[in-house]
Q: What sequence folds into this?
């Protein structure tokens, strides 16, 4: 990683070039920040996601604490149905951290054998993670 711990321009620019229509980019170049781990776009092992989330949650607990005070509620949201159509400007809507936190809390207390609407839970977890990012950046 570059000094300062950020991803660096090559990662961000390479990934952006790989997904924008009309711009020629070699996917291997898009993975230049981690050439030993280049995969087709969108491929991720669940075990990798689990490990990353566990590491992130541990860092949140260590750096912010076991309970997170989130001082904001409303935020701009790109609806999931439009988020990956990068050739078309999306219409934003408004999300609510209060709603996201309540949904995550409800999901955490549901019986494990109950069906999970993955898309729904991901939307709310993403809202909470964005809010935590704002807390960390303050």
A:
């Amino acid at each position: 990683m570059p000094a300062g711990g950020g991803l660096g321009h090559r990662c961000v620019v390479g990934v952006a070039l790989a997904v924008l229509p009309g711009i020629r980019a070699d996917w291997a170049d898009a993975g230049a920040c981690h050439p030993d781990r280049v995969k087709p776009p969108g491929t991720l092992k669940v075990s990798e996601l689990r490990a990353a989330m566990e590491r992130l949650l541990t860092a949140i607990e260590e750096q912010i604490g076991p309970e997170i005070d989130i001082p904001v509620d409303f935020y701009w949201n790109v609806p999931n149905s439009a988020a990956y159509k990068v050739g078309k400007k999306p219409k934003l809507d408004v999300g609510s951290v209060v709603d996201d936190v309540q949904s995550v809390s409800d999901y955490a207390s549901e019986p494990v054998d109950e069906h999970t609407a993955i898309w729904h839970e991901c939307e709310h977890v993403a809202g909470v993670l964005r809010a935590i990012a704002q807390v960390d950046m303050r």
Confidence is low (pLDDT under 50) at residues 1-5, 22-31. The longest strand covers residues 74-77.
